Amino acid sequence: MRWRRLTPRRMRAVLRRHGPEAIVWRRRIAILGGAILIGLVALLFARLSDWAGTTFLALAHRWWWAPLILTPLGCAGLVWLTRTVAPTASGSGIPQVIAASRDPDRGMKALVAGRTVIAKFGLTIGALLIGASVGREGPTVQIAASIMGYAHRLLAIPLRASVYIAGGAAGVAAAFNTPLAGVAFAIEELAAAYEQRMTLLVMAAVLIAGMVSLGLAGDYVYFGVMRQTLQVGQAVIAAPVAGLLGGIAGGLFSRLMLGMATTGFAPLRWFRARPVLFAGSCGIVIAVIGVASGITWGTGYRTANAVIAGSDVPIWFGAAKFATTLATAVSGVPGGIFAPSLSVGAGIGDMLRSIFPTYPSGAVVLLGMVAYFTGVVRAPLTAVIIISETTASRGLMMPLLASALVADFAGQLVCKERLYHGLSRRFALGDPDKTASPRPS
Fold first, then answer.
1. How far is residue 229's CA from residue 92's CA, in Å, rounded to a whole number?
2. Residues 6+ apart with CB under 8 A from 246
3. Could you read off the pLDDT of 36-45 as tens digits, one per residue?
């Protein structure tokens, strides 16, 4: 009797609800397709970023004076292009994703629109070509969120905040080849309140994007394998010291960056009203420090990697990289601060090695890296997992976590507002040139 009741009309209804055209299947196809594309684009972005950084270093090595001209003019030109072509492509890209997740439909029109992320892709490569202290990880988050958004829109699936969060998390996983860090980043940084219903979406996107990156780039460790560990007594002493020093330094970076847009200091306000001139002035700072030091250009990946491996850097490296990263970030040049922050943290870790000369040097450097990174982004779990996965240093998990928790507390004392959430407010208001008051909402 039941089969007799299954009329053609009811059959069509069943197919619409459970067949290949059902929204559940379209959503799965969007997740799969979007995550695969994110992995491919992230890998291409990484290769081009490495090429851009290497090209600039070769130029600076051949003609030491060239950056004094190229970097200031390049910063001014990139900011002019950004403001002309895609104003919401400025800076890291993570604040834009946070703002877009609060209003998903509006986000697709500007914050993670195709024009914006295409410009972000090219302009970030351009920033590395002129020696600016930027990373590709933040821009990868914005690009990945856009890809996931368009994949859902193409298949006529309603946009939700979870779509951007999953895309951004997949971007982190593909950029660092760290799937667990992608999940932690989604929980701590992108999602104000982690909803249970987005769990599958985030996990699927992260794992697929990570598998694509792993399959094409190979099973590599971002900073190389570091097997050193700390004894309990050493960890009890070194972790809090590293957390305090790194957290204060990271909190200072966030406070200075958030305060630049709201400062009442007249000369800075005059410069901020002339963004292209201001960017050129920041470029002069970057160029002078870079030419004087020779090691503060670009992402800082090579220097950080060398410090972890045991190489020495000048005691002032951390402060010099801090200054160039801050100058780049406030200039408005498109680019992230993930990799440069890890490089600054490596400089702080190198300072700590002189305080603890008998401790395993690589382990102490990692404590400095996780502490400074936590102080900047105020996401201790993400920081610990990123450092652990990018160095395969699972034996340091507890000291890293202790250092990160102390750094989170110390950073909060210096800057109460979290950096990315504070920066996202100007995009939430729809004007990338005006930053809202940093008072907590």
1. 33
2. 345, 348, 367, 368, 369, 370, 371, 372, 373, 374, 375, 403, 407, 410
3. 999 999 999 9
The dihedral built from the CA positions of residue 312, 314, 260 and 371, taken in this order, carries a sign that is positive
Would you give the DSSP letter of residue 332? T
Four-point Cα dihedral 237, 321, 137, 374, nearest 10: 30
Please name every residue paired with 336 in a beta bridge, in sequence order, or none if there are none. 135
β-sheet bridge partners, residue 135: 336
d(CA 415, CA 413): 6
What is the DSSP-derived secondary structure letter of residue 435?
P
The whole-angstrom separation of Cα 369 and Cα 243 is 9
How many Cα atoms within 13 Å fall on the side-chain side of residue 79? 26
Kindly report the length of the chain: 441
Cα of first residue to Cα of last residue in the chain, in angstroms, is 61
pLDDT digits (tens, 9 = 90+) for 168-199: 888 888 887 777 777 777 777 666 544 545 56
| Token pair in block for residue 330 | 């406030």
22: Cβ contacts below 8 Å, ≥ 6 apart: 15, 16
Burial of 340 (0-12, 13-18, 19+ CB in 10 A): buried
Q: Residue for token digits 């914005």?
A: 142
- Tokens in use for 139? 């821009």
Torsions phi, psi of 135, nearest 5?
A: -125, 170
Q: Residue 227: what are its φ and ψ, rounded to 5°?
A: -100, 0
- In the predicted model, is pLDDT for residue 73 greater than 60? yes
Q: Which amino acid is at 426?
A: R
Q: Do 438 and 422 meet the contact criterion of CB atoms below 8 Å apart?
A: yes
Whether the pLDDT of residue 437 is over 50: the answer is: no
Best CA proximity match to 108, nearest among 155, 45, 42, 152: 152
Listed residue (58, 193, 138, 163) closest to 373, CA to CA: 138
Could you identify the residue written with the tokens 């559940």? 24
Which DSSP string do the residues of 34-47 spell out, in sequence order? HHHHHHHHHHHHHH
